[in-house]
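NADPH2:quinone reductase, Azospira oryzae. Tokens?
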Amino acid sequence: MTHAIRFHRTGGPEVLQWEEVGVGEPGPGEVRVRHAAVGLNFIDTYHRSGLYPVPLPSGIGLEGAGTVEALGPGVAHLQVGDRVAYAGGPLGAYSEARLIPADRLIRLPDSLSFETGAAMMLQGLTAAYLLRRTYRVQKGDTVLIHAAAGGVGLIACQWAKALGATVIGTVSTEAKAELARAHGCDHPILYTREDFARRVRDITGGEGVPVVYDGIGKDTFTGSLDSLRPLGTMVSFGNASGPVGLIDPLLLSQKGSLFFTRPTLMHYTARRADLEALATELLGVVTSGQVKIEVHQRFPLQQAAAAHIALEGRQTTGSTVLLP
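Tokens:
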């Protein structure tokens, strides 16, 4: 029997349960994937806690890598035995095997491990749309990336540096500052010790940055706006410290006619063509070595609750995978 992590009520990590599940045969347009590794992401905690409501009971997880076990009717672009990876719905990646729409899957090159595939897809595609679509980073830009030593942060720092940008990043400890610096962050800022907005102004000669990539949310929102130059772009793509809350549009005007967006990966990859385009860019920088995907934590899938505790406690750096 196949096992999966599921939850029947929202709450803390303790609501995650290891259960037997039936997978069955794939229907039209579906495939069955046997997971070799599953990605851990902060959005998983939003589903579990109820911040992002989902119908209950529910599976959990949006990212995985493994092998195609069976094809449903109408699937022509994949074969049994193909190595694949994915990021996105429907929920259910925290499982030994699952059914998933075939058009959500990307072939994983033989040169990349399943762990790399599971660790890079959601965080890497997030970095891809942030840097190449939401605000297209150009050579000579100076950018601010919050949580620079996290999973998205380490990828985004390397990628932005490869694009020719000067990278400013916020971190919470000296160890994380060194990690971020080793991955392309020119100016790590310990937000626990100094006013990051003031430091950004110092670094940029008072001008501010054209874009802030903020996955932290409530705790960094005001400082992020204060770090932007006039006509700058505030990209709020996560809520690690809690949701931002209501925003007065006049605030954006007062701080320099700023642009504000709250994007999600799901919208940027809703069309198969857009998913393939972003995945091609991501695979390009990873296979070329410009961006290294580093798995710093591994947990047995059955211990997903412990992984959530570590993630929410900011005890992790880089990427974390769950192993079935």
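Residues 2-121+269-323 form a domain with the Quinone Oxidoreductase; Chain A, domain 1 fold (CATH 3.90.180.10).
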